[in-house]
Amino acid sequence: MRLLCPSLAPLLGSLLLLLGRAGQAYGQAAPPADTTHRQPYRYVETMPVFPAQERSDSARTPMQRVMHFLNKDLHFPAKALRDGVQGKVFFSFTVDAGGRAGNIKLVQGLREDVDAEVLRVAHRLDSIRWRPGTQNGRPVQVAFTVPITFSVQGGPVRPGVQGADSLDLPRFHRARLPVSLWGLRHPVPTRQGLIYGACLPRAGGSDALGHYVRVVNLTTGEAFRLPVKPALHLQRADAFYYALPPGRYALSEYEFGPPAERLARRPARPGSAVAATRYVFEVTAGQLHYVGTWNLANANEALFLDEKDLLDAVLQPQSAALHFEAARRAIPH
Fold it and tell me: For the domain 166-329, what is the CATH superfamily, name and number?
């Protein structure tokens, strides 16, 4: 038995790996907090920094410190262990402009005893003083969501180690770009479906490289390589919109530099059905589809968030041809 606490996952992303670039050093006079923004930020120029708690933290990244801190006191409830309960519990919290954690809430639970244990551990954050996040040089309040995984067998999912699945068939190995890199000024094509969403890519790699998600059309066997972060693009959350042939799609790989990372939910076995191991979504011809915010910032911990209203508000003023309010939700599940 092993308990896993995956990396800290903000709702729209994390800049934690860029913390060395900027930020207010301890001991310096801090600028006044920005109180004009009523809602917490989802991502900011400089994200809050979790402080070192022990000597070994000097060798850990800020995200690894949070993982270690929560894992140290996390226990699998005995009855849940006997019942073979497995899955993820999500909780959210904010770090205010003074560096204090608060507003700890359960976002998605498994069952009462497991949820109670997660909230107990989450409230250990109450005693931690963070270095606050900043936007435009001023301290601000930032919101986070943390997924905690309870696993009886333990160990992170490592697709390909425990066996192949049906996406390993040779016909899926050749991938091409989408049929059309569709623009916002064009209406939905009649023979294809139009997908749109946003992606938070992995940090820490070369910004000169493009990032891609490979998807497989399970209906036709075609594979497509979707650019989700353009080369030489430093923006942390990128919107994308592509036309694809209709069919049922499975997310196969995330390419951000060698080697590619497989996108799977659970260990695969030889002969496993794709639906049992992969994130899938449907595309219908002549239809606009919202496929969510793809948070790929953390290794082996893909998150697919529903931020449709936020993205629609950004894209709609740029397009008179598309009606985003009528888009069908097709978030990978």
Answer: Carboxypeptidase-like, regulatory domain (2.60.40.1120)
